Amino acid sequence: TGLLAFMTPLSPPMWALFASAMVVVSLFLTLSLFQVEPSQGGNYNAWNSLWNVFSSTVGQGAENQPMSFGGRIIIGTWWFFVLVVMASYTANLAAFLTVKPVNPIRSMEDLPRQNKLEYGFIRSYAIRRLFETADSFPLRDMWEKISANPDWLVDSNEEGLKRAAKGKYAFITFSGVRFRQIKELCEVEMVGQPFYKYHVGFPIPIGSPHKDRIAYEIETMRQVGVVEELSNRWLEVDRGRCKESDRKTDDGVLKMENLLGLFVILGAISALGMAVCVIE
Fold it and tell me: Which SMART domains match (predicted)?
């Protein structure tokens, strides 16, 4: 939405490249027709050539057309180029205007209120008992749907992440699990706040002589920062290695790589047209 919403189907570099192509083709057209008399096809100076190219871009056409064979090659190639670009632009603009964005999931409460996303956790996860005994929203409502669809549960963190990366699935898991080795991490994000906190302890025999020593060492490691360092190394999510190109985007914007071949064809055949003009 906005004043420039009509420009969203093409990326900014695409608009710049398209405008540059108009100028270059206009220049080629001017150079290819310098020997034509006004009575043979009009005064094709630089301005009129640019106006001819622009007119054909917006589907209006020009009163005078090139008389030379080389000039016709150039303008004909431009017509084909414009036909493909405008068809792609129109299709993308229609999609932007008609497709409504999916409401994002920002918290646990959003999950049971929608029917487009499946959700679940590891089949043997500790929080399963929490869901089973819940008697209030949202956990109770979520468990009703999960229990009715057991295939929403997964067997491992890796399976859950891969399923979430494919889309249409929200994976509920421990927020500190280390997923660095899983490439799909670059294609998912964590939303909402932790809702189930618990502590981990070390069980030892009653009356063990090592109890005080173990407690002392753990507290010392915590105070000097060793626990935090280990947590950052093994538990924190590392997104630093994720490149922008690794993240999936479904915005549908036409980028340079999508139509680069078309620009190459335009340049090559226009150069051929100029060569024909030289021969003429």
Answer: PBPe
Q: Select the CATH number that applies to the domain covering 5-101+255-279 from these four: 1.10.287, 3.30.1490, 1.10.10, 2.30.29.
A: 1.10.287
Structure tokens at 49: 């050539």
Cα–Cα distance for residue pair 25/260, rounded to 1 Å: 16
Q: Where in the chain is the domain with CATH 3.40.190.10?
A: 108-194+201-246
- The whole-angstrom separation of Cα 176 and Cα 194 is 10
User: Across the chain, what does the average pLDDT equal?
Assistant: 81
Coil, helix or strand at residue 169: strand
Residue range(s) in the chain whose domain bears CATH number 1.10.287: 5-101+255-279
Please give the single-letter amino acid code of residue 107: S
Q: What angle do CA 266, 267, 269 make, to 5 degrees?
A: 70
112 with 148: CB under 8 angstroms?
no
d(CA 91, CA 98): 11
Mean pLDDT confidence for 53-61: 83
Q: Please give the class, per CATH, of domain 108-194+201-246.
A: alpha beta
> Interhelix angle for 69-98 vs 46-57, to 10°?
40
CA distance 82 to 25: 12
pLDDT number for residue 161: 86
What is the full DSSP assignment across 182-194? -GGGGG----S--
Q: How confident is the model at residue 245 (pLDDT cuts 50, 70, 90)?
A: very low
Using DSSP's 3-state secondary structure scheme, residue 154 falls into: strand
Average pLDDT over residues 128-147: 93
Amino acid identity for residue 253 in this structure: V
